[in-house]
Amino acid sequence: MCPTAPLPDSGLDVARLRADTPGVAFGTHLNNAGASLPPAPVHAAIQAHLQAELELGGYEAADSRQAEIRGAYAAVETLLGATPGSVAFVENATVAFSQALSSLPFGRGDVILTTRHDYVSNQLMYLSLAERFGVELLRAPDAPEGGVDTQAMIELLHRRRPRLVAMTHIPTNSGLVQDPVPVAQAARERGIPFLLDACQSVGQIPLDVREIGATFVAATARKFLRGPRGSGFLWVDPEALEAGLTPLFPDLHGADWIEADLLQPAPDARRFENWEFAWALVLGTGAAARYATSCGLERIQDRAWALAALLREKLAAVEGITVLDRGPRLGAIVTATVAGWRPGELVADLRRAGIRTSALDRGSAVLDFDARGIQEALRLSPHAFTTEDELQLATDALADRVASRRV
Ligand SMILES: Cc1ncc(COP(=O)(O)O)c(C=O)c1O
């Protein structure tokens, strides 16, 4: 194999990152695009709240920890460069996305403009809107080098005047990183809402909602942000809140019932939340946001992307492994096929060897996989706490498995 250059110094203290991550002692975690290993402060924040619930009861615990809860909102707002009152906590990115969609009054013939790389559940929601309300789904074409053709998308935006423009920043099924900024800004100039799925990008790269210019940003806690499972959030542009965008199904937390036939939405992004909360997970998410901010998102991106590039190089050098990622910018998700093995089988076999990866089937990316003739793929997603030795371990394990089935 070609000798590889050492990784550029990201400025991160990797030993410290690993010391903060108890899970690294239990295996090689290359499934950060699925669910990452939380750092110790995330676990501590969750435990502290569960302890309070144990001692006081759920309602009383939440009442007694209002300062910590406000701190969690502030931490996520800081992570996103957002202003106070613009973040709603929800259960996951899918709920964040659907809450945002529900705030738009879709009617027959309305157009949703999106890309061929939007997440599977988002595509399913668009299809459901098409079926129920007669919405037209328009997917901008790809550029020859991979990822959406930004200019073509902007032209469609001007020509078709969509009701909504939506884009997945980093798709689940490849290393591709799409650039939302030019499209979000074109949408903003026309007063068209722009919904960004930042599920894989939050915690992986810097995200500044002011710079992007979106109307909504939907995200989850458990992936590159390294928060707990079961927590996500939606950022809503304060101007959109001011203009009266509200979710279709508010509850008694998101709105007040002020007269028999009158509701009044909460003044801030809370209107996108429900009353019942796993506050321990909200606090864990706040701790994850604080941790990522303290590490520095640029540094995390530099290291995670460099590790992923190195992994692609290592895998591509193994006969029988085909690296699938393509696009002008590639992030921390690596996808590949491995001769003689189905990805699901590999995931199980590698897991027995202490290496954690995940498998993608056609249903996770019908458009992209069909266009590229891919049936299934193995996904490996390093994070900043991953080491080069771990990449080598995973590469050797895969090379052994290819050899074991070579005919
Ligand atoms: C790009 C993208 N968007 C949205 C989601 C959905 O996130 P959640 O499972 O938190 O709803 C995922 C999950 O893998 C994803 O990769």
Task: Describe the structure in your own words.
The structure is a single chain. The chain is α/β, with parallel strands linked by helices and 407 residues long. α2 (40-56) packs across α3, α4 (66-80) crosses α11 (279-295) and α12 runs parallel beside α15. The mean pLDDT is 97. It has two domains: 14-30 and 296-404, Aspartate Aminotransferase, domain 1 (Alpha-Beta Complex), CATH 3.90.1150.10; 42-294, Aspartate Aminotransferase, domain 2 (3-Layer(aba) Sandwich). The chain has 15 helices and 15 strands. It is globular, with a radius of gyration of 22 Å. It has helices spanning 14-19, 40-56, 58-64, 66-80, 93-102, 120-133, 150-160, 181-189, 209-212, 238-242, 279-295, 297-316, 343-352, 366-372, 388-404, and strands spanning 28-29, 87-90, 111-114, 136-139, 164-168, 194-197, 216-220, 232-236, 255-259, 262-265, 321-323, 334-338, 355-356, 358-360, 377-380. A seven-stranded mixed beta sheet has the order 2-8-7-6-5-3-4, sandwiched between helices. 42% of the residues lie in helices and 14% in strands.
